[in-house]
Amino acid sequence: METIPKPLVMVNQWTIVLFVIIALLTQSAWVLLIPLVANLSSLLTGFHPILAVAKRFLSKPANQYTQEDYGQLRFNQWLAVGFLLVASISFLLGWSLLFNIATIMVGLAASIAIAGFCIGCFMRFQFQQWNYRRKKSAA
Length: 139
What we know:
The chain has six helices and two strands. The protein is mainly alpha-helical and 139 residues long. The chain has a two-stranded antiparallel sheet.
């Protein structure tokens, strides 16, 4: 099972929260492009520029930190990218209500994850359970 050190996951969450706050205060989606491009890059190429920089600041070898499931991180990244994309597109279309809703949702999810509860993890687990029950009843 592939894993990622928890401090790097936290850096990604804090990056999203920081840029969401800036976007909401300025009512501009341009700053959301930073976490959007970084997470999309990670999903498409496996390279996350922000985490590549943050990794240099780890004080111990990466494997000595609490590890997070890489598959779960990818699932959460897809959710974040989706909301950041909706926020960015709605900003460009002048749909301020949808911009604010999508931006707040991704910011809240990242904030709640920082506090210790991963909404994306819960959603993925529920989906996996539903899929398991569906396949079991079909057999």
